[in-house]
Write a structure and sequence with these properties.
Distance between the termini of chain A: 185 Å
Number of strands of chain B: 5
Radius of gyration of chain A: 62 Å
Largest interface: A-B, 22 and 24 residues
Oligomer: heterodimer
Largest sheet of chain B: 5 strands, mixed
CATH class of chain B: Alpha Beta
Number of helices of chain B: 4
Number of domains of chain A: 5
Structural class of chain B: alpha/beta
Order of helices and strands of chain B: EEHEHEHHE
Helix content of chain B: 25-40%
Structural class of chain A: alpha/beta
Largest sheet of chain A: 13 strands, mixed
Number of helices of chain A: 11
Helix content of chain A: 10-25%
Strand order of the largest sheet of chain B: 1-2-3-4-5
Chain lengths: 676, 108
């Protein structure tokens, strides 16, 4: 044993050092205390350890240093020793710490502060697990948490709404939780009382809003709601709301005809594909809605917010469109096809002409258009061209139907087709003399009735049942022609392709009362007078219309097996007319040097000039002339017949230069020079 | 009231009317006219005693005349009083039937 009562031993390992110490001290391992002084490692590949220890004979039964020894000693021996030790403990009773030291080499206890707990050992607060012994001065206490409230106002970017944000935390009074004795203690707390934060007064909120500058749209009831509620956590309430400005409405243009276009594309028929839109004069094409200034709003800071001023826009118009009503309504100035041109800036136009660059066939479909129609090709079998204005066909018209409000021009041939130019006008002008005659006859009939009723020798007792008997008698006797004329008139109406014109409906219904045995149903003479009045009014109207309407002409090169009606002239420029029916309100001209009219029927209201009429094969050709019309022909073959109200005339021989007309006394006159 | 004196000879039947040719007597007049013998080729109606006519009466007369004419029987109306003839004229009966078959009574 050296100075201090220990020896120093150097060995290659700890075990070896302990063995040596045991031998040198001459005692058992259990009774030696050692302290490792130095540990050295040398070499890289074959690592060699040198351990230097201090060793001395133990004085105390259980020493801390023994633990190191234990670790190095036999495990069985160690366990045997642990079983006999008692560890130290910590106990918390009523908030006080009771520490017991270990016995027989047991462990010292540790203490650790938990949440909301402060542990002070020997005047020093600790923050982590710390070993203590019974000798230490340990104090523990629980923190107290104060209630917390936070008020804030959040304002939206657009300054239109403000939110009151209330953040509440309840205060907590805590105490240290008791704990059973154990070696490791984490001191916990328990809440014994929750303390709510103080209530907010509405005045507080209003002051806060005032501080923030919020003056408008404050919702009092929200404030009181915020004030009333008292729950923990964040609470966000809309507390003020501004009056947003009503945005201005920009002027916009609505193109009405486009809507129509969309809605008309419903039914499909191979003959009526691509229904092309057309408008009449005066039809509304577009309406501009006025720009409207929005209403100013006010934000929560009481600032007035002026909406953006509205943008105005214009209806841009091109040809055929007129602006009315302070430039807010665009109407068609001409009939035609409305179009909207341009990519960005749209210009509204009405194109007066519908153009078919090729044939009117299955790819185009029927053409029904209110303006003019130009066809650069042919009009083929089964198709129909209806135009409110002119129709111009550069090719042929073959088994087709053309109807025009105005002129029809066909540069080539018309074969097996039907052409109507201004047919309505034509029919009306044909009806007019009938209507006039009928109304004057009815007046005469009424006069006769009146006269008879006042006649001495005429008894009127049977007329008490109705004056129809007398009307029927007069119509059966003196006025036999009335029903005859009415039936002829109906016949003309029925042959019209367009059916009954609306303005004639009333007349037809009235005139029916005078046909068959219908007159017997008449009760009073007044009824007959009413019929006359309706007919007269109708005649008047038709006359006015026909004076307004310009006559529509038909011009074609050659016509075969066709029916042509025109309210104006019919002009054939080429080889002539073969077995066709021509009806003209005015003149007919088939007068080019080689032109012939073979077969068929001609009827002109004016002068019919024909180069050659009929054929040497005695084909029956009929020319009908009425009062005021004249037939002039250079050459007339036999079997040509002239019909008129004043009589009938059939040519038996070939004649040249004839002129046929109705003389003032109503007879048919035929002036002729016999062929040599 | 209408009285009809009928006198049939070989080919001529004569009806002498007196009274009023109106709605009340048309049936009687019609049956009388229809009862003529088959050999008759001419019917002569004497209107001398007729004072009044009405629309039904005239209608019946016209009908009867048309019917007889269809059977190729000549109908002649004789001694029509001036007033009655005026009525016939207004109704266009002379034009319809032929003026030669209607004989107006002349004031002599």
């Amino acid at each position: 044993m050296g100075e201090g009562g220990y020896i120093i031993i150097k060995a290659d390992s700890l075990e070896e050092a302990l063995e040596k110490a045991q031998v040198q001290l001459n005692t058992s391992k259990a009774k030696i205390e050692v302290k490792v002084v130095n540990k050295e490692k040398r070499g890289f590949i074959f690592r060699k350890e040198t351990v230097t220890i201090q060793a001395w004979i133990k004085e105390k039964e259980a020493a801390l240093e023994q633990l190191v020894d234990d670790l190095l000693s036999d495990s069985a021996e160690y366990l045997e020793r642990v079983e006999n030790t008692i560890d130290g403990t910590i106990e918390i009773i009523n908030g006080k710490v009771v520490v017991k030291n270990p016995q027989c080499g047991g462990k010292y206890p540790t203490i650790e502060p938990g949440e909301n707990i402060r542990v002070i050992i020997n005047g020093e607060p600790i923050s982590e697990a710390t070993i203590i012994s019974a000798e230490d001065d340990v104090k523990i206490e629980a923190y107290k948490q104060e209630p917390y409230i936070d008020l804030d106002v959040e304002v939206d970017d657009d300054k239109q709404s403000a939110f009151l944000v209330v953040n509440r935390r309840f205060g907590k009074e805590c105490q240290v939780m008791d704990c059973r004795p154990c070696i490791h203690v984490r001191v916990r707390h328990e809440v014994i009382k929750e303390v709510p934060p103080p209530k907010i007064s509405p005045r507080e909120v209003i002051t806060l809003l005032k501080d923030k500058g919020i003056v408008y749209g404050i919702n009092e009831s929200s404030i009181s709601r915020v004030v009333e509620s008292n729950t923990e956590g964040a609470n966000k309430v809309l507390i003020a709301e501004g009056q947003p400005p009503e945005p201005s409405k920009n002027a916009a243009v609505e193109y009405i005809f486009q809507k129509k276009e969309a809605s008309s594309n419903t039914s499909f028929s191979p003959y009526s594909r691509n229904v092309d839109l057309s408008v009449e004069v005066g039809e509304v094409l577009a309406i501009k809605s006025e720009a409207r200034e929005g209403k100013a709003g006010i934000n929560i800071f009481g600032e007035t917010i002026v909406p953006k001023p509205p943008e105005d826009t214009q209806i841009l118009t091109g040809d055929g469109v007129r602006l009315i009503n302070n430039e807010t309504v665009a109407v068609a100035a001409i009939a035609g096809r409305p179009v909207l041109e341009g990519r960005k800036t749209k210009t509204l136009k009405v194109i007066p002409t519908y153009t078919v660059t090729g044939d009117v066939d299955i790819s185009v479909g029927n053409v029904i258009f209110k303006g003019d129609v130009i066809v650069y090709g042919n009009v083929l079998e089964g198709f129909q061209v209806v135009a409110g204005g002119d129709i111009i066909v550069h090719g042929n018209v073959i088994q087709a139907e053309l109807s025009a409000g105005r002129n029809i021009t066909v540069y080539k041939n018309v074969i097996s087709s039907e052409l109507n130019a201004g047919e309505n006008t034509l029919i009306c002008t044909r009806l007019l003399p009938y209507l006039k005659q009928i109304s004057s006859l009815i007046h005469n009939l009424l006069k006769a009735m009146q006269y008879l009723k006042n006649h001495n020798a005429f008894k009127v007792t049977d007329l008490r049942q109705g004056e129809g008997h007398l009307v029927q008698l007069l119509i059966d006797t003196k006025f036999k022609i009335i029903p005859k004329l009415i039936l002829e008139l109906f016949e003309i109406i029925n042959t019209s392709k367009f059916g009954l014109l609306p303005e004639l409906q009333g007349t037809v219904a009235q005139l029916q009362k005078l046909t068959g045995i219908n007159p017997l149903r008449i009760q009073k003479g007044q009824e007959v007078f009413d019929i006359a009045r309706v007919v007269e009014a109708n005649a008047q109207k038709i006359q006015e219309n026909s004076e307004l309407d310009e006559p529509a002409n038909v011009t074609a090169d050659y016509i075969q097996n066709a029916s042509v009606k025109a309210s104006g002239d019919i002009v054939i420029t080429g080889r002539g007319v073969i077995t066709s029916e021509l009806l003209a309100g005015e003149d007919i001209s088939v007068s080019s040097p080689m032109a012939v009219v073979r077969g068929g029927k001609l009827s002109a209201g004016g002068i019919a000039r024909v180069n050659e009429l009929g054929s040497n094969a005695n084909v029956i050709s009929v020319v009908r002339i009425s009062e005021g019309s004249v037939l002039e022909a250079q050459l007339v073959h036999p079997a040509v017949t002239i019909e008129s109200v004043g009589g009938k005339y059939q040519f038996d021989d070939l004649v040249r230069c004839i002129k046929a007309y109705i003389s003032p006394n109503g007879n048919l006159e035929v002036e002729k020079l016999k062929a040599k | 009231m209408l009285e009809v004196d009928i006198c049939h000879s070989k080919s001529i039947s004569c009806f002498k009317l007196s009274g009023e040719l109106d709605i009340s007597v048309v049936e009687k007049f019609r049956s009388n006219i229809e009862s003529i013998p088959e050999s008759t080729t001419e019917v002569c109606i004497d209107f001398f005693g007729v004072g009044f006519v009405d629309s039904t009466g005239v209608g019946c007369l016209v009908q009867a005349m048309n019917k007889l004419r269809e059977q190729d029987i000549t109908v002649k109306i004789k001694r029509i009083p001036k007033e009655i003839y005026e009525v016939f004229d207004i109704l266009g009966i002379p034009e319809l039937m032929g003026e030669e078959y209607l004989e107006c009574q002349t004031d002599t």
